[in-house]
Write a structure and sequence with these properties.
With 308 residues, the chain is an alpha+beta fold. The protein is built from six helices and 16 strands. Strands 5, 6, 7, 8, 9 and 15 form a six-stranded antiparallel sheet that branches. Strands 13-14-10-12-11-16 form a six-stranded mixed sheet, with helices on one face. A two-stranded antiparallel sheet has the order 1-2. A hairpin with a 5-residue loop joins strand 11 and strand 12. The protein is globular.
Amino acid sequence: MSGADVRRVRAGRRTVEVHRPDKVLLPGDGTGKDRTKADLVAYYRSVAAFMLPHLRGRPLMLERHPDGPDGPRFMQKNTPEHYPEWIRRVEVPKEDGTVRHTVCDDSATLAFLADQACLTLHRWLSRADRIDHPDLMVFDLDPGGDDFTPVRDAARWLGELLDELRLPSALMTTGSRGLHVVVPLDGRHHVDEVRAFARDAADLLAAEHPDRLTTAARKKDRGERLYLDVQRNGYAQTAVAPYTVRARPGAPVAVPVSWAQLDDPELGPRRWTIADAVEQARTGPWSDLPRRGRALGPARRRLDALRG
């Protein structure tokens, strides 16, 4: 590869090589320009300070698109041997052995992954040192169509339920179709307990709004109802990380938002792109979340009382 095909960028204390920086990875959406690998690296370097706290210590599944979103997609769990030695790995148990996941603890790793055409980072809801005790619980609000109104309504209803259970929560656009509602936990509860809690909460909400919401996993059973997806709370499941890029035209980004922004008529799942996501990050949309996650014990008792 010629020198013109390699660009060196500074990321933290390291210099990272960007190969074929002018290669188009994300086409424009008719209103924006095509985005190259250099654009992707520049975005991830600019957002690193806001993104890394949501990544550190967590195993990742990497969604790579070496030829852009129209080419083959690779969902990479195992860390390749050729990755630099300074990139952290963690061995995670699975049914027939282990998986050596990549962990992104610094801006250099983030830039290197962008060079590998990793558009989207999917993170575990637990950290490597307590792999089966998640410190996050996620509800994925997946609409049946492109209308965002059902997503707003479901988010409000779910937020009200979580408030009643005294569980602080946060909103995030997905960069795709819906919203995520994220609940920080204290990490004391086993993954099976967390998943059961999320399922019971979603079932309760769907029972209160049976014409609008469903927990049916099969698409044919949902009709036009919004799907309250809690499957991401299972062991070895992942959710898109805050500020990650999605493999869609226009380079939309999954972005944390405040609950007040739910009333913004311009809000949508692809409201922010790599062109302006950093501006939203600087507003501190999750600044009102408590520094420590909550235990599920008291919330479980309140939830059971509502279900009973």
